[in-house]
Amino acid sequence: MEQLISIVDKNDQSSNEYLGTNSWTGIKLKRLFLIVKDQSPIVYWVAIIISLLGLGCVFGLFIDDRTLLGVNVWLKPLKFSISIAIYLITVGYLITKYPYSNKKKAIINHITAWTLLLEFLIIFYQGSKGVQSHYNMATPFDGILFMFMGVFVGINVLTMVLFVADTLRLKLKVTRPVQWAIFLGWLIVLLGSWIGGQMISQLGHSVGVVDGEKGLPFVNWSVKGGDLRVAHFFALHSIQIIPLFAMWMGHKRKLRHRTQILIVTVFAFMLALMIGYVFYQAKQGIPFVAS
């Protein structure tokens, strides 16, 4: 046990040398990637693979003129490649701050990496065929793929629940304001997962219009009717937004921890309020940005 603690401490020391516990300036992408590569290698390499496939999607945008629901068939896999890669790197880094054993970290990292890789490969495969990946029950095979996507998402939601509980229960290797920000970030991510469940239950993301109506550039959020993807997007990325805000504030402002926690709470509440509003807006069939 002492040897294990020594290894964990050594890893954390290495992490702090790379990033600096309280240093905003230490948060540089290159260093962050080095930490993830060193301490969460499976997550790192899966993120790299998905990013490379995302580059393939960019290539597809230029050479393939097929469209699906009004946009190029490669746009959706591209968007998911970016979102999933960011999430993987986030988990790969944050998990180094939990006082887990190396075995527990490896199990969580493997579960997260493999389920999200399989999820993305289904999206990529269905995109390459020019058919929908989500809500697609056109054939039994399409339905099975969609079902597996739901299973993979469900497994990841369980890991999020674990992170929520452990962020509240354990002492992370970060300052108290940052730990509180991570906790609030995970809570809002769970809200985003629930919004995802709303889309699955109605087999679509639009309200008041059919999926595939005219949308905003790249994100393709509907400008004609409600679109649940807006709230889903902001909620899922709260786990990056809120902790980064807390780390920035901790570096820029010489405030007491209690004050920082209060400001982080207000910031997270405002973000949650905004997400709640755009969700309500979408449910009324109102576009996030009207054309």
Automatic annotation (TrEMBL):
This is Uncharacterized protein. The chain crosses the membrane at residues 42-63, 78-95, 107-125, 145-165, 177-196, 230-249, 261-280. Keywords: Membrane, Transmembrane, Transmembrane helix.
